[in-house]
Amino acid sequence: MDDLFEFSKNLDPSEEKKAEKSIFSVSELTRKIRNLLEYRVGEVWVEGEISNLRKQASGHQYFTLKDANSQLPCVLFRGNASKINLNLEDGQEIEIRGDITVYEPRGNYQLIVRNAQLKGQGNLQSQFEALKKKLNNEGLFKEEIKKTIPTFPNTVCIITSPTGAAIRDMISVIQRRAPWIKIIVYPVLVQGEKASQQIVRALDDIEAWTQAGKISIDTIVLTRGGGSLEDLWPFNEENTARAIHRTNLPIISAIGHEIDYTISDFTADLRAPTPSAAAEILVPEKIEIGNRLQNLAEVLKSQVINKINRWNERLDYLGSRTLINEPIRILTELEQSTDWKFEMLQSSFLEALGTKEKTLSKFSNRLTICHPAKQLEEVSGKLEIINQSLQHSLSIQLNRCKERYERSAIALKSLGPHSVLDRGFSLTQDKDGNLITSSKDINAGDKIITRLKDGELESTVD
Asked: Is the CB of residue 153 less than 8 Å from the CB of residue 258?
């Protein structure tokens, strides 16, 4: 409403005058107020105490959030309620995130709840996530460093409150499933400021006593019942996680309900969703053990009987052998077998020796054929034949060339200029020796040379 007042105060006089004349319906004014609240306020975090909680069959929840001076109507719709890991109750101090709006049919402003957590839980959750990330980066949660939980423990140590429901449930389950198991309860606080210190001391004491040989424990169970994040916080402390990590005995963590997760769950060697589940994981049921022992006994009996039968068969076989009844005949058979095998060995040796001789003779013949002297002799013969063939071919080629030369000389002589001169013709040349073939090629006064059969004539052209 202050925003509405500021809005009207900023109007100029003309607009203010116009606004005074405007008349809104109830719906119009309610809608304007709703829009103003949703626009100016919108999503907020608010804390207070729950009162007048009403849970409808539809799954919606209605309640009032109040403090010493004011109250705020709230509605948590079914879809958002399923996402919130919190069971709302009257009197709870909670922190709520939601959207301010107006329920127009009644003209009431209210908060539509989107998320809710116990008061102070947001800070604890941030601390939880930060420590979880830190220890994970250091390797405290690695699977390869986790120890194996014994299948048949003799002594179990439970670190918990001796008056809580968790210890009663665990003892009941263990005694029902395996009554012979020895149970040691180390009493500690499981809630409050001093709880973490007592849990760390318990783990260190058990480790020291085990190392000193004072006690013999197979498995440690760290457990308590359900509660809020604040109630479970001792199991989220860093010193608790490091004490679990440095303990050499296998540890099962069973803290709270199935939906609750603590740092101890991640650090321990095994997480159980509930204390009762831890007891079931810890020890096998006596009926199951009896059945397994019965099966093992039957298997062992069958194996022993089979072994005895095989040895009896062996003894019967050896007892029926002729060596026991007629040793001289057996020795005679062995001598005869030895002679037969000697003959076979001798025959095989001679056969193998003959085969080797044949192979050696074959290689010798091949060596003779491939001897270098033999190869050189063959090559020399081939070269002599090639030489004679080359000489014959060369002689034929030379004779052919000589005949062609003689024919060419005769043709040249008959067709050459000298043969023309011998027949009474002449050649006329200028002083430079160029042949004159036309009267147009010379002028008066030029000197010419006329070649005849028996000499040359020099003359001047008139």
From this structure: no
DSSP 39-69: HHT-EEEEEEEEEEEEE-TTS-EEEEEE-SS
pLDDT digits (tens, 9 = 90+) for 5-32: 444 444 454 444 444 567 888 888 888 8
The string over 382-394, giving b where at least 16 C-beta atoms fall within 10 Å of a residue's C-beta and e elsewhere, is: eeeeeeeeeeeee
Give the whole-angstrom CA distance, residue 428 versus residue 28: 141
* CA–CA dist 440, 436 (Å, integer): 9
Which of 259, 284, 309 corresponds to the end of one domain? 284
Residue 114, classed as helix, strand or coil, is strand
Check: pTM over 0.85? Answer yes or no.
Answer: no
Residue 110 CB neighbours (<10 A): 19
> How many CB atoms are closer than 10 A to CB 117?
19
Sheet of strand 270-271, all strands in order from the earlier edge strand to the far edge: 182-187, 155-160, 219-224, 251-255, 270-271
**Among the listed ranges 6-10, 235-239, 386-390, 401-405, which one has the minimum average pLDDT value?**
6-10
Q: Are residues 261 and 181 in the same domain?
A: yes
> For 151-175, how does the pLDDT look when each residue is reduced to its tens digit (9 = 90+)?
889 999 999 999 888 899 899 998 8
Parent domain of 252: 124-284
On whether residue 320 sits in a domain, the answer given is: no
Q: Are residues 203 and 273 in the same domain?
A: yes
In whole angstroms, give the CA distance from residue 205 to residue 226.
Answer: 26
Reference 230, options 278, 192, 181; nearest CA is: 192
**Residue 210 within a domain:** yes
- In sign, the C-alpha dihedral spanning 86, 89, 93, 95 is positive
Cβ atoms of 207 and 217 within 8 Å: the answer is no
Quick check: is 326 in a domain?
no
Q: Which of 292, 296, 298 is nearest to 152 (CA)?
A: 292
* Within-domain flag for 311: no
